Amino acid sequence: GYYLRDASCEIDFAPVSQKADFKIGEKVERRGTASLHSVQMEYTGKGDRAMTLAYDIPLPEGPVTVFPAPDKSRTLNHWDAPVTVDTRQCAAGSGRLPRWPFIAVKTAKGTRAVGLAPGSIAVFSLTADPVRRVLRIGFDLAFTPERRDAEFSVADFTFDADAESGYRGAWKVWMEAFPEFFAVRDKKHGTW
Question: Which candidate, 143, 154, 116, places its Cα nearest to that of 41?
Fold first, then answer.
């Protein structure tokens, strides 16, 4: 589900339904094993607000194998620190931006992945948290009198994974769900 946290004064997240000054709308479109969530959020209060919106997918009990990148995997137990996909350099604000568009996991009950859908523009982070048992995409949002709304799309999906495929198995589903972003547009390549 969706959770909000005020960046200036709140420590933990609360369901969006408990935030009187915010309205959230969502349209869901199926694309194979992927669900594309088109989200519209509006701030109806006064003044400026800096918020973090999180979309959480619950994870089952037991070890979680995280695929944060095509060449990496790591198995986490319930006491391990969360794995966050980010870049090495600092980005907007004091946080970091992801290098990859999604994070994928494998559990005893199957696979899941979540990410920012292609074509969306947002400051976001991706986390697999074995302590809270969630797979999360978080968005840093700023609401001002000039801009009271935000729009973005989240994709979550299942994929086939074995020891060899991991992230690449998730990438295959990602490409199938969004073929318009992987189409070859140039007929000639290279220097000619």
Answer: 143
Res 34 pLDDT > 60:
yes
For the stretch 97-115, pLDDT in tens is 566 788 899 998 889 999 8
pLDDT band at 164 (very low <50, low <70, confident <90, very high): low
- pTM, two decimal places: 0.82
